[in-house]
Amino acid sequence: MNKLLLALTILLTTSAVAQTASTGTPPTIASYTAGMEKQAGFMTFYWDAKKGKIWLEIDKFDTEFLYYPTLASGIGSNDIGLDRGRLGQEHIVKFQRTGPKVLMVEPNY
How many Å is the Cα radius of gyration of the chain? Predict the structure, then answer.
């Protein structure tokens, strides 16, 4: 009984501590991307040279587009077929907002 009570106490304590506090309103795209290089196009993205990251501005929800995954670098084995620059299978996908998240969804046609 004591072990069960101890386990329950630990579980409740850790779950209460794990809750994150609300930080208020999120920053605007303009303020967050200040100082980044903007590349306008079908999908606008921002290049953060300091961190080496690309941030995608998603404004076309539920609009289908072609998605071709590629490998930036391969493993050097032709038998497997994982070579640098090789195109993967094409997909028709769209972005969907689900609660606070954005999902890339491939419709099942």
Answer: 22
Name every residue whose Cβ is closer than 8 Å to that of residue 39 and which is 6 or more positions away in sequence.
45, 46, 47
Average pLDDT over residues 13-28: 68
Torsion over CA: 17, 20, 22, 23 (sign): positive
The answer, as to whether pTM is greater than 0.70, is: no
Tokens of 68: 């071709």
Amino acid (one-letter) located at 44: T
CA angle in degrees (0–180, nearest 5) for 64-74-95: 15
**Residues paired with residue 61 on neighbouring β-strands, in sequence order:** 95
Mean pLDDT over 50-68 rounds to 93
Q: Where are the beta strands (DSSP E) in the chain?
A: 37-39, 45-48, 53-56, 65-67, 91-98, 101-105
- Which pLDDT belongs to residue 14? 64
Predicted pLDDT of residue 78? 63
**SS3 category, 42:** coil
